[in-house]
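Fig. S4 source data, part A: sequence.
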Amino acid sequence: MQGTNPLDQKKHDTALVLQGGGALGAYQAGAIGRLSQEGIFPRHVAGISIGAINAALFAGNPPARRAERLEAFWQKITSATAWPGMSSFGAGIALTMGAPGFFRPRLLPTMAVADASQASFYDTGPLRSTLENLVDFDLLNDGSVRFVIGAVDVATGNFVWFDNAEQRIRPEHVMASGALPPGFAPVEIEGRFYWDGGLVSNTPLERVVRTRLANRPLVVWQVDLFPAAGAVPRSIWQVEAREKDIRYSSRTRAVTDWMVHEHDLAVALHSHKDRLPEDFRLHPAIEPLLKAPPPAPLTLIHLIYRSNPRESGTKDFDFSHDVMMLHWSAGAMDVERTLSHPRLWGHDVDRPGTHVFDLANVTE
């Protein structure tokens, strides 16, 4: 597979969309490394929560160092369980001891604190140091890669975007996108406090499509960490895992379906514009779609982590080293399966409309 690429990047722009999912983010890191090996280098990356951290490691390093820096991060934060016999206790170790270079338990978390940035069970101060060591924020902000991450304004409940095309990104922006309460405290930025973007939407797909770099074909690699489809649970441990899958994937599925519908509607309207009655063309819901340029073709390639039956509801905070390596390998393998699938090889990125692929587990 080395060097093969059925999608010629001279014909289109490429984007990388990274969902939130805690410890499952190692799956994204493995996928990114494999995409790089195959010569696929997205120019637009967006993430939520752990996806924001992986996105920063991607955009804040030159292509030749991205896989290395991603590996350094994931090796570091799972090093507490990097010895044999400890993997089964990974979630418990994270709960009681934290994750090196990521978060540590507060000694005496209290019911009320004077400073909102202390209102949590864990302190993410170590993450700031890790980001400063592994991410070149000058490079991230130079604009060679469009970088977008999402967070939630705690006071208003509104979703906000941090975008290097609109502001200078600092470590605190990345930390804010992953500040999931009550484990992690809100992060203060210019007098406002922000929590994890996954509280409102766990996928930044819409932002990527709406801010595409040019009106030319766009291929989006969307790396999701929670599958919408799954087996009916038959134990209380499976119930918790399945509940998380549904909760964190439902918004992703809804956004994807809505965007496909809107994109294809705009394509259809432009195709028949000359035959539309004037009062229809001037309708407030239709006129903006016709005034904008016809949307360029959109190809959405899903990579979705699918849990093994033994994983429980602790899978998103199991930072054991052995489990991290399994997730990493699964991400790399799903990229390889997707790129080798005949349906992708036969796809034309210039074909109008929206085209969605989920091929990693398709055999025909």
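Fig. S4 source data, part B ends here. The longest helix spans residues 236-271.
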